[in-house]
Amino acid sequence: MSVVEHPQNEVRPDGVEGPAAPPKRHHRVRTVVVVVVAVFVVLVAVVVGSYLLRSKPGARSLRSAGNSFHATTTTVPTPRAFALPQSGVYKASGSGYEQIAVPPDTIHDSAVMPVTVSYLPDGCWRWHIDYNTAHWHEYDFCPHDGRLLLMAQRNSLTVNLGLTSITNLAKFACNPPSPIIVERPRVGEVFAHRCSGTNTAAAGVSTAAGPVTIVGVTTVDVGGKEVPAIAMTRRQKITGGQSGTLDEEWWFAASTGMPLAEHRDYHLSTASPVGAIAYTEVGSWRLDSMTPAISGTTSTTGPPPVTGSP
Predict the structure, then answer these.
(1) Number of structural domains in the chain
(2) What does the pLDDT read at residue 15?
């Protein structure tokens, strides 16, 4: 014979008999769950809100670039095969953007971009451009056997996530380094180029390699002055920690190798725990003047400019 148990009744404060109230611990569990959910919602709102309301990078001023230049430049120029561009901070004008897929973000280049030239030992020199306060790129050039070579390059991009930020610093050494200018440039001449290095946001070593082609011996209008120039294309594929393509068009002053203008179109993919993250960078710029807005050491003379028909 089975026994059916019925829930016990209790007399409520109003005098009416009814079902017994559930144990108080159930109320405490529900209260804890409600508090946890509320805290989670608040945290999500704070994170999302800080991301949506995050500040965007602005233009880096010429004065700020000049302060950095004067604080770090001490090397005395030692010209070798080519004239050195005058050291200091130049003004360049252009436009462009950097776009990352995860988290989704687009950073725009400034209309005015400081370009800094500083001297290194043995006739080498460093060229640095600030696209904005969050993104810069720089190259090290050295003369060797009648050529000015690209020896190394670095770039840095900081992405603001609201509550925190992520900075990717890339450092690449070039072997073989490609010529930037040569004593007797010939249209159609092709050079090998290969740079390998690391990114703080990507695992392993990445290698960018591809042909560098002289497409013209021409002139570029820089602030109303026609400057003899060598036009080059650089078509590179990057493999390893990152993959993708780097397509560039450059115009270099024929006498010094000073970059006068550039177009770039980058499409990269970086592996991550959430899958491949796409990155796009497109932009262009042109030097406004062959004279720095903030001067450093006076440029030194070298061999005559490389000019003439190919």
Answers:
(1) 1
(2) 58
